[in-house]
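Review form for a predicted model. The reviewer records the input and the model, then writes brief findings.
Reviewer: anonymous (R2)
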Amino acid sequence: MKDLFDLTGKVALVTGGSRGMGREMALAFAQHGADVIVASRKLDACETVAAEVRALGRRALPIAANVGRWADCDALVDAAYKEFGKVDVLVNNAGMSLLYDKLSNVTEAMFDKVVSLNLKGPYRLSALIGERMAEGDGGSIINISSVAGANPAPNAEPYGAAKAGLNNLTRSFAFALGPKVRVNSIMAGPFLTDISKAWDMEAFKERARTAIALQRGGEAHEIVGAALYLASAASSFTTGSVLRVDGGTH
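Model under review:
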């Protein structure tokens, strides 16, 4: 059973890999034998996680990249293949939302920033890396989506729309890149990562009692089981799926 989740000899690229769920996934992949490319906008933060990966006996490559920009995506892919010659697992984890008081106050720059990071970047990376995977030994692409993509709600319209698009891409890319590449999405519920620091936690806890079956938010490490499943041979017949890891969110 342990061999099902073995990633020995694999190379994983995790965007938004310097903190929160991205960091947890990067370290879990390393613990299961993978070398890891850690990408985020701040190089020093990537280097910190890369050092943690190396302490586990694996190779690591920290890269500063804003994956909302196609030029940065292209440079990231070039650097990854120059260093390792392949990418076996791509995790499109980088994402963000913005706060606004009313819909008409969402500026074009705000809208573009949210859609670029949550949708445009994953498209570009999946296209570039996925095609190389398909031409080679295959691989796994994991998109980190959100329940906001399936449960539209106020105050997250651009974010929810982008995540809905990411779920759509997941299914489309699964067919476009199959049969050698598997493409799946983790639809994450509310996780208590850095983003939750802006929440009214008392209001959240009250809402969680009725809106979430487990009556709480997730901890960053609780994404790891799903990520390991989708990255490894354990999910060899799973593609085009959207897996909810949301505590049972309505």
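Findings: The CA atoms of residues 128 and 173 lie 12 Å apart.
Further findings: The longest strand covers residues 139-146.
Recommendation: see findings above.
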